[in-house]
Amino acid sequence: MSHDSTFKTIMVALGVCLVCSILVSTTAVTLNEKQEQNKKRDEIKNILAAGDLLQDNREDFLQIFQERIQPQIIELASGTPLPESEYDKNFTPENFNIKEIAKSSQYSTPLEADQDIAQIKRKPKYMIVYFVKKEGTVEKIIVPVYGRGLWSTLYGFLALDKNLKTVRALTFYEHGETPGLGGEVDNKSWKAQWDGKKAFNDTGELVLQVLKGKVDPSKPGAESQVDGLTGATITTRGVDQLIKFWLGENGYGPFLAVLEKEGANEQE
Ligand SMILES: Cc1cc2nc3c(=O)[nH]c(=O)nc-3n(C[C@H](O)[C@H](O)[C@H](O)COP(=O)(O)O)c2cc1C
Hints:
The protein is α+β, with helices and mostly antiparallel strands and 268 residues long. The chain has one domain (68-267). Helix content is 35%, strand content 21%. The protein contains six helices and nine strands. It has helices at 6-50, 61-68, 98-103, 188-192, 233-247, 253-267, and strands spanning 69-75, 108-110, 122-124, 126-134, 137-148, 153-161, 167-174, 209-210, 225-226. The strands form three sheets. The protein has a five-stranded antiparallel sheet. Strands 2-3 form a two-stranded antiparallel ribbon. A hairpin with a 2-residue loop joins strand 4 (126-134) and strand 5 (137-148). The longest helix is centred in the N-terminal third of the chain and has 45 residues, at 6-50. Bound molecules: flavin mononucleotide.
């Protein structure tokens, strides 16, 4: 057979294709694992940031997470913890995946239009919450929140004080809003406003609000209000609505009621 026969050319081409495809798929699989690991580490850093536990350049953040944060899966409708006996290998606090749960028909249900103020389409049956502990007692509770802005769904964490009424932080770890407009949700001074805002009034009514415009500190209600984002009315409204959804009866309302009752019982 001559060196430049058609058969030989095709065989060499096929061989090169095979080697390349093996190389590409091996790299993709290896990188995918690494990406998942990095995502998990990033998520942990964001939970710590919401709990004001992320010190700059600290390499021991995993240890801080283990020492100070206690995750718990809850059933949203009842607000009660899911017993550990009902965990399985795909459903544990370590691998709880909000995006997967939110689109699965097994783990979420469609929301009626009038209930879907955060524009998330489906309500997860379960959620993960994080108790921030110091010397054995709960200091804060961090809950995941998400909802639609202008260009994207914003994903973040809301930290509430142990009194269950005062906000301690709101931080977003993923969104596609415009830098300088809706992207100002990441602005440090805008985020700083959330610390100390009153989410519920003394009768338990949800009063937290993101305004279209600036808060006037001399007006009643200012203690529950946060400035809107300049030139980003739609993102502002999205944040306002997602907070209201997640702190309301379809979100963590039942869970907060359970905690409140437990707290009251402890004091009896
Ligand atoms: C390129 C571009 C990017 C924008 N990005 C955002 C954004 O991220 N969030 C937002 O709320 N509005 C954004 N806007 C502005 C909105 O289109 C809208 O004008 C603004 O929210 C004000 O709404 P209003 O006229 O109802 O007050 C953007 C506009 C342009 C032209």
